[in-house]
Design brief:
This protein is mainly alpha-helical and 120 residues long. 62% of the residues lie in helices and 0% in strands. The site of heme C has 24 residues, from helix 2, helix 3 and helix 4.
Length: 120
Amino acid sequence: MIVRRTLTAAALIAMMIVGTAHAGDMKNSVSHGEQIFNTQCIFCHGQGLGHPAWQMLALKKGKAKAYIVGRTDLTPLYIKHVVRNGLIEMPPFRVSQISNPDLDALAQYITHPDGAQSAK
Ligand code: HEC
């Protein structure tokens, strides 16, 4: 019954992997949000000259607020609103571009890049 034993072992390993993934949910959602930021937002919202959103926000709100990641005055709700509706020169993003769960992870990352839990 080697086959049966191998299957049992495989099932156990699979369960362990699923369990680990679940325990790491909070951290995963932050690194997932970071991934979305780095693919969808960074070319405008990266730090420094050459990033149009950074430059515009530096001009309007000052350099301390130019980089949106880690700002304490932005709420997840506001960020999600801006992403879905756009803001002046910033284009809106549809659900087909950034899904609702992805947008949650993104807003979580921007408000708490350190991985701390945020109130929605
Ligand atoms: C094509 C460039 C561009 C892209 C891509 C872009 N933005 Fe923006 N974003 C801007 C600009 C420009 C502004 C400043 C708008 C203004 O006030 O003039 C802005 C403003 C914002 C603000 C408002 C900041 C404040 O102080 O009120 C948030 C939040 C924001 N962007 C989030 C995002 C997120 C999240 C993404 C990725 C999904 C993203 N943006 C992608 C250009 C961009």
